[in-house]
Amino acid sequence: MVRKREDGRWEGRIVVGHKKNGDPIHRYVLARTQKELIVKLHDCIEMYRDADLTEDSNMTLGEWLDRWINEYMIFTIRESTLDSYKAMIKNQIKPYLGDRPLSALTTQELQKFYNTVKKKGRVKPDRLHGTELADSMVRGIHMMLHEALDMAVRLRLIVKNPTVGTTIPKNNYPPKQILNDEQLERFMQSIRQDERW
Predict the structure, then answer these.
(1) What domains does the chain contain, in order, with CATH numbers?
(2) Which residues, including other chains, have CB under 8 Å from residue 184's CB and lie 6 or more apart?
(3) 0.85 cut: is pTM over it?
């Protein structure tokens, strides 16, 4: 459907899924001109091609992550991993993206989130790093979000996983120290002197 609104803008809508009662779920596109609207509408149609979303696609990212943790992950991962996921959701994801509609998340938005949480994501600032998160923590957040949003795609809550295409920090392990002959000999002597060996 395409129409001109009273405010002068053009509006288009497409059906992207159905509610449990059979009513259609729409996505709307707005533009200043009809020509601009047609371009946006074609992009929207291409994005939602073959989609059949459910009404749950209207939930927020925070609501989805709570549901994902409590219904799908609770018996599939170790308790320590579950606790880690819950902490990341509470401390890093919900403050920045928790109220964002799940179906509206974009790759660009997630990239901006990763960049922001890297700089300001630490809950308790420390002397050495301030509020900056470790690269490994940002990677952990990304991997968890990727897994959760993959599940959302499989359940037809979203069309594609917006974590695909983002860039995350590489692991920056400290350089390994290679022992010279003298250091190696001292190390071996301490092992030989240890009663357990």
Answers:
(1) 2-52 (no CATH), 57-154 (1.10.150.130)
(2) none
(3) no
